[in-house]
Amino acid sequence: MKSEQGRAYLLALLAAALVGIPVAGAAVVFDSVVHGLTTLFWTDIPKDVLDVGEPPWWYVLLLPTFAGLLTAGALKLPGKGGHSPADGLSFDPAGPKLAAGAILASAASLVLGIVLGPEGPLTALGLALGTVAGRLASKNQVMGSMVALAGGFAAISTVFGGPLASSLLFFEAVATSGKFQSGLLQRILVPGLLAAGIGQLVFTGVAGWSGVHEIALTVPGLPHYGSVRLVDIPLSILIAIVTSIFVLGARRAGSVSFHRIGGRLPVLLVGGFAVGLCAVIFHELSGQPLSLVLFSGESGIPALVGVGSAAVLVGVLVAKALGYAISIGAGFRGGPVFPSIFLGIAVGVLATVVFDDFSITPAVAAGVAAGTAAALRTPFTGALLGALLVGSAGTNAIPLAIVAAVVAWLIALAASGTVEAQPETPSEAPAQPPPAST
User: Fold this and answer.
1) Residue 209: CA atoms inside 13 Å, Cβ hemisphere, count?
2) Helices 265-286 and 57-74: crossing angle, nearest 10°?
3) What pLDDT, on a 0 to 100 scale, did the predictor assign at position 101?
4) Could you give the maximum distance between any two Cα atoms of the chain, in Å?
5) Count H helices, E strands: the chain?
6) Residue 53, Cβ density class (10 Å: 0-12 exposed, 13-18 middle, ≥19 buried)
7) Alpha-carbon span 12 to 18, nearest angstrom
8) CA end-to-end span of the chain, whole Å?
9) What is the pLDDT of residue 10?
10) What whole-number distance in Å separates Cα of residue 2 and Cα of residue 10?
11) How far apart are alpha carbons 221 and 205 in whole angstroms?
């Protein structure tokens, strides 16, 4: 019997390794299509058709409203548009038929300016392909679901800085679910680690091809950070507190609204219009790019780190958090993590403006760590992402990222009785992995 289980597990490992290849390819296609359509709607049409340098105010209102119409249509498909970001980031396996609506709904959000991230549809895409591979590889329900989960690993690693960050995220999600014995965690997650590693090899190999686009969080041009100063520790804690307030406040407002009125066509249309209005008002008052308010956040990071006005940064925080809350509450689909990280970076940049001698490198590390930990209640992943995004320039800032992640995590736990009515990411990891849905 043990030998049969061993052979089934080795087969699951092989299937997981193989599924990493098509998942990475599908992620490349998804990222490239989203980038191409975004460029078409927000750059090419205004320039070539409207003959303007930047989208006019009415156009900025129109596109997110149109996203509401497309999302309402996707919600009528099988699967009802997939998992809502109001309830965190889901790792429940679903077949291609159910995942299609989620991918279409999220693509509309990403392209047309809604404030949600790509991690949601990419996870759904990976889980769907993994579900198919799991069915083909094994009739054993548990082994098949492990392969399905491995597909999610491979997909999300393309946007979370590689396989290590995505694997740690999945580890925290599964471990804190309490549905597995601790001794089983390694065997359950190793197929996902392998799939993510193979997928990253493929993604690295094709990312430089012409026409291929990579959705990734990067913070360019950070200066080298020397030794930690004593004052940097309380400043990092302050960043974590402020970031948690904005992230959890937006998440709570969005979640409450979604569970009351979200997903209806009038609400989606009004919600899309309101997101566009937030961007228009901010742009008119500040003169700063629309990307600081619209979209998932990664495209606006280079402009964000260059802002030197405290008033503008406060405006970014208010407008982005409001757009984030509206996007969740109206019923749009997408990931909840990227906007939270953007808010954390904005708080970090604001701290460097208010406190002149505070380096932007540890501020960004603390902001990223706090934003991730507050959004997902995953302090390990938050700290690792904070370290990865600042790179070698911020090696000495890693302890500050850890402190910020833990503080944000504690605040999120303390608020968990009121912040979310629904279970968060960790409790959504499949326990006895469920049968693959169609």
Assistant:
1) 12
2) 150
3) 86
4) 71
5) 15, 0
6) exposed
7) 10
8) 30
9) 83
10) 12
11) 25
**Contact between 239 and 367 (Cβ < 8 Å):** yes
pLDDT of residue 158: 77
Best CA proximity match to 251, nearest among 303, 324, 185: 324
355-387 pLDDT, tens digit per residue, is 989 999 999 999 999 999 999 999 999 999 999
Q: Do residues 67 and 85 touch, judged by C-beta distance below 8 A?
A: no
Which secondary-structure segment (H or E) carries 279? helix 265-286
Pick from 366, 367, 316, 361: which is nearest to 344 by CA?
367
Q: What is the pLDDT of residues 33-84, one digit of tens each?
A: 999 999 999 999 999 999 888 899 999 999 999 999 999 999 998 888 888 8
With H, G, I as helix, E, B as strand and everything else as coil, classify residue 335. Answer: strand
- State which H helix or E strand residue 410 sits in: helix 398-419
Token pair recorded at residue 75:
């919600």
Query: What is the structure's pLDDT at 432?
Result: 46
Task: Note the pTM of the prediction, 2 decimals.
Answer: 0.90
What does the angle CA 282 – CA 106 – CA 279 come to, to the nearest 5 degrees? 5
Give the pLDDT of residue 177: 64
Nearest-angstrom CA–CA distance, 423 and 171? 17
Taken as a whole, the chain contains a residue count of: 438
Handedness of CA 377, 381, 385, 391 (dihedral sign): positive
Give every residue of the chain whose pLDDT is below 50, as ranges.
1, 418-438
- Contact assessment for residue 169 and residue 378, using Cβ atoms and an 8 Å cutoff: yes
Tokens 């990931």 -> residue: 335
**Closest residue by Cα to residue 204 from 21, 400, 336:** 21
Q: What is the pLDDT of residue 200?
A: 80
Contact 91, 351 (CB under 8 A): no
What pLDDT, on a 0 to 100 scale, did the predictor assign at position 280? 97
Residue with tokens 């219009």: 273
pLDDT of residue 179: 62
Q: Sign (positive/negative) of CA torsion 214, 215, 221, 226?
A: negative
Listed in sequence order, the DSSP H helices in 40-95 are 57-74
Q: Is 124 exposed, middle or buried (0-12, 13-18, 19+ CB in 10 A)?
A: buried
Structure tokens at 205: 């190999």
H helices within 138-231, ranges in order?
141-156, 163-177, 185-206
Q: How many CB atoms lie within 10 A of CB 427?
A: 16
